[in-house]
Each structure stands twice: as structure tokens, then as C-alpha cells.
């Protein structure tokens, strides 16, 4: 069966993907990582164009998108869950 | 690659042929608006400033207004002042003349004896300017004469995924053909400065990139405000963007990959070819106004959530990769890149087509914002502090 890609991993080192359609709890997020198609189960409702964690992310751990630092976890984030401003915040700046 | 443009007497090339009715101060706004409304080929703008301002703000007002008059899309200007304002018409004329020798006429409401007299005389003067402008013919010029501003507004995740990368491709193509691309919105560089600095053409440019970002952050901290209370916006967040860093990393894609040649002060113009950055806040109407004051003949504006704004002087081309947004606001958005997001078309393929559309628009094809006529022509200027 031809299973459609419904999420995008921008860079191989990212720990989040972006859903390109809204995803129900329990559904499968399907994205391309280099040549491979990867599937993960979504553990909560993900609004269209929002982020999903592809691994567990510990509190204060860095969050990567575009292969760059976009923020830090302010709570533990489990694989397959919604990543947004309720559980990540800007990285602390040194200046 | 070539386009058909208007050669001005100052040597610059415009893609439109506007007669501008320019208020020196807010007190002259309505007079300018009524003159322009009586003449379909005239444009005007709302100027909130020009008096009750400290020296620093007055200089900003003068810089933006004179930059707009000097923009190559303007054939000539009728400037209306009140007579007593801080932003004296005489000084404005000197500043405009230091930038261009294009037609410039001046009327003062107090001298003419009220708004009706000024409107009457102003319509006759503008009518003559329009008739002169109508004799201008488009000629063929190399695309290297184009300075294109790129802007992102109402960003969502699709902006960083597709819309900005497509415009980045257009930016690279234009620069490789000898043109200039200008982006701004300094607050939307936060989190991505290091990536831009890597592409700086010189250490001086690299340092200035960090400097303009730090300056904006510390300025806001200095007045007891937090930049992050305004960035990202509610729309950005609803569209999936969680932090300013995430937003910025998506935003900078619209600048493509070529070296950064210069960092411009707010509303300044450039002699450089290639990619330049202008220091402005991230507020879109302000940022677009500043880039047009800096000489951009055309603006490409990527949006995720949708935006209707235009500019009185420069065509603003709206593009999105969010199919729902395109369908919902089709009367305001020119181009839809959602097929790239769906994987049906490539960034390069669409980028090449967009460049061709840019040339068509430069040649005279109207953007959706322009088709509304004298509407969607918002202008906003930066301020350093409150009025006095």
C-alpha cells in the first residue's frame, strides 16, 4: 500500500518533525530521513504545521530544527508528542 | 535577462510611473489624500509624523519621506506642507534634491489660505505632473538594474519549509544575474545571526550583523520591554512556530545563499550589487516602507497566515506555500507554492518560474495589492521615542 509522507524532517540531526497535515492521537507520522521512510506513532493530537518529537527530549535539552538550535525543553517531552511553546522556550542567551 | 523600465532623469530605473502627493506632516495628510483621490494616476500616503518630534525622530521622518520621493518608481512629487511644522518643506526639498533632481513642487496650506485652495491648486499641479509622466516610455534594461526587497509576514511553518526557500532561490538567481536583493527585519534574525555572519563578505559586515541584533535587543531591554513579548506573534504560534529562533531560522531562507555585501542603516539606500541587509524592526508595514525608501523597486512578501498590504510606490508580490491560506485570501495573494510542500514540484523549478513572474511584474503586470488602486498602501516609520 502506498503510504503518504505526512511530516517533514528538515535536517538529519533534528529531534522534531513538522506535520504537514493535522494528525489524530494514535495515528502514524511518516517522514523521510535521507533515503529511509520513518514511522512514529503520534501520542496526542497534532495541529497542521506543528512539531512532533521524534525522540524523547529531557528537560533543558536542546531542540533542533533546520539542524540548528531553536529552543530548550522546559518539560520532559516524550517521543511522538506535540512540541510547542508549552514545552519549549528560547535557548538561554549568554549576553 | 531584461525588463522594461522607466529611466529617470537622475539615471535610476523605475518599474512604475507614479506621481506622488507627499505630506510633510500629518496636518497635510487629508489634503494630500483628497488631491490624490481626484487623480486616479496619483498616489499618496499617510504620514503620522513631521512635528512634535525630537531631532532623532525628525531625521527618520525626513529620511523615509525623501527616500520614497527618490524611489525610481516615482516620476515626480508634489509635496504639501502646513507651514509651521518642524519638518519644514524647504528643508525637505533640500534633502530630496540631495537624492534626486526629479520634478518636485511644493505647496503650503497656510500660504495658500486653507485646504480648499491648496487642493484646488494641488490638483492642477499634479495634473500637469501626471501629463508629463505619461510621456515617459518604458525601455529595455538589464535585470541587474533591479533592487528587489524580500519580506516575510504572518509566518507559519510553511514559510520556513517552502515559501522562503523558494524566494531564496529567486534571490540567488537575481544576484547571479547582477541584481541586488535586500532583506531586513533584524528582530527576525535572532537565533540565526551566526549563519548569516558566516556568509558575510568581510569581517566588518560580519560584526555589524551581530551588532544590529544586539542593539535591538538591548534597546528594548533598556526601556524595560521584552522583545519576546512581541515575537513570535499569535498567528506565528498558531501556525506552528514556537520560538523567535525557530521563526528566524525559517525567515533567513528568503535571503538565499549568496554572500552578504553590506548592512544598511534603516531606510538607507545602497550602491552595492548582491545581497544586502537593512536594519529594521520586524513589523512588516514598517519594514516594507523602509526598503522602498531605500530604493527597492519591487517587494516579494512571503506569508503563511495571509496578508493584504501593499505600498503606494512599489508593487508588493504576495506568495505563500500554505494552500488553505491561498484559497482563503486569494484576492490578496499572488502566488501559491503549496505544490512544493506536497512534493509535486521542486524549489528550483518554482524559483525559476517566480523570477519570470517578477520580470512580468517589473514590466507592468499588476500585483493583486495594486489592482485595488489607491488602497493597501500603508506606510509606517520607525521611532526612537515618544512624541513631544
Architecture overview:
Chain A has 95 residues and is mainly β. Chain A has one domain: Roll (Archaeosine Trna-guanine Transglycosylase, Chain: A, domain 4), CATH 2.30.130.110. Helix content of chain A is 0%, strand content 37%. Chain A is globular, with a radius of gyration of 13 Å. The model of chain A has no long low-confidence stretch (mean pLDDT 94). By secondary structure, chain B is of the alpha/beta class. Chain B has 15 helices and 14 strands. In chain B, the strands form three sheets. A seven-stranded parallel beta sheet of chain B has the order 10-11-9-8-12-13-14, with helices on both faces. In chain B, a hairpin with a 5-residue loop joins β1 and β2. Chains A and B meet through β7 and β9 of A and α6 and α10 of B.
Compact overview of the structure:
With 95 residues, chain A is mainly β.
Amino acid at each position: 500500500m502506498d503510504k503518504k509522507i505526512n511530516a517533514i524532517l528538515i535536517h538529519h540531526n533534528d529531534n522534531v518533525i513538522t506535520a504537514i497535515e493535522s494528525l489524530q492521537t494514535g495515528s502514524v507520522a511518516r517522514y523521510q530521513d535521507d533515503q529511509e521512510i520513518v514511522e512514529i506513532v503520534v501520542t496526542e493530537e497534532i495541529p497542521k504545521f506543528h512539531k512532533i518529537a521524534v525522540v524523547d527530549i529531557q528537560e533543558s535539552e536542546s531542540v533542533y530544527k533546520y539542524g540548528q538550535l531553536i529552543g530548550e525543553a522546559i518539560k520532559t517531552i516524550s517521543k511522538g508528542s506535540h512540541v510547542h511553546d508549552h514545552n519549549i522556550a528560547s535557548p538561554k542567551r549568554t549576553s | 535577462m531584461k525588463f522594461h523600465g522607466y529611466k529617470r532623469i537622475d539615471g535610476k530605473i523605475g518599474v512604475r510611473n507614479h506621481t506622488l502627493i507627499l505630506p510633510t506632516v500629518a496636518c497635510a495628510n487629508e489634503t494630500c489624500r483628497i488631491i490624490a483621490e481626484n487623480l486616479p494616476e496619483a498616489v499618496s500616503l499617510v504620514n503620522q509624523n513631521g512635528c512634535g518630534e525630537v531631532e532623532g525622530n525628525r531625521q527618520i521622518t525626513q529620511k523615509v519621506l525623501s527616500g520614497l520621493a527618490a524611489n525610481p518608481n516615482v516620476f515626480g512629487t508634489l509635496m504639501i506642507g502646513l507651514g509651521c511644522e518642524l519638518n519644514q518643506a524647504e528643508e525637505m526639498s533640500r534633502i530630496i534634491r540631495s537624492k534626486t533632481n526629479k520634478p518636485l513642487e511644493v505647496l503650503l496650506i497656510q500660504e495658500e489660505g486653507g485646504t480648499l485652495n491648496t487642493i484646488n491648486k494641488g490638483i492642477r499641479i499634479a495634473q500637469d505632473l501626471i501629463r508629463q509622466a505619461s510621456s515617459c516610455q518604458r525601455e529595455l534594461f538589464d535585470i541587474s538594474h533591479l533592487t528587489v526587497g524580500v519580506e516575510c509576514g504572518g509566518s507559519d511553518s510553511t514559510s520556513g519549509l517552502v515559501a522562503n526557500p523558494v524566494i531564496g532561490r529567486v534571490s540567488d538567481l537575481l544576484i547571479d544575474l547582477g541584481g541586488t536583493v535586500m532583506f531586513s527585519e533584524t528582530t527576525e534574525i535572532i537565533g540565526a545571526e551566526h549563519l548569516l555572519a558566516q556568509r558575510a563578505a568581510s569581517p566588518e559586515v560580519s560584526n555589524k550583523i551581530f551588532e544590529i541584533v544586539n542593539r535591538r535587543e538591548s534597546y528594548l531591554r533598556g526601556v524595560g520591554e521584552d522583545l519576546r513579548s512581541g515575537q513570535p506573534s499569535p498567528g506565528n504560534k498558531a501556525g506552528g512556530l514556537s520560538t523567535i529562533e525557530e521563526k528566524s531560522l525559517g525567515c533567513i531562507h528568503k535571503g538565499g545563499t549568496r554572500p552578504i555585501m553590506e548592512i544598511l542603516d534603516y531606510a538607507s539606500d545602497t550602491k552595492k550589487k548582491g545581497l544586502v541587509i537593512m536594519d529594521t524592526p520586524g513589523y512588516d508595514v514598517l519594514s516594507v516602507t523602509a526598503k522602498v525608501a531605500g530604493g527597492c523597486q519591487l517587494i516579494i512578501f512571503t506569508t503563511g497566515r495571509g496578508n493584504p498590504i501593499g505600498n503606494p510606490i512599489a508593487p508588493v508580490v504576495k506568495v505563500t506555500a500554505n494552500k488553505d491560506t491561498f484559497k482563503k485570501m486569494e484576492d490578496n495573494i499572488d502566488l501559491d507554492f503549496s505544490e512544493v510542500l506536497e512534493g509535486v514540484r521542486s524549489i528550483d523549478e518554482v524559483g525559476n518560474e517566480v523570477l519570470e513572474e517578477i520580470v512580468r511584474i517589473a514590466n507592468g503586470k499588476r500585483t493583486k495589492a495594486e489592482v485595488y488602486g489607491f488602497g493597501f498602501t500603508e506606510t509606517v516609520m520607525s521611532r526612537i521615542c515618544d512624541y513631544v
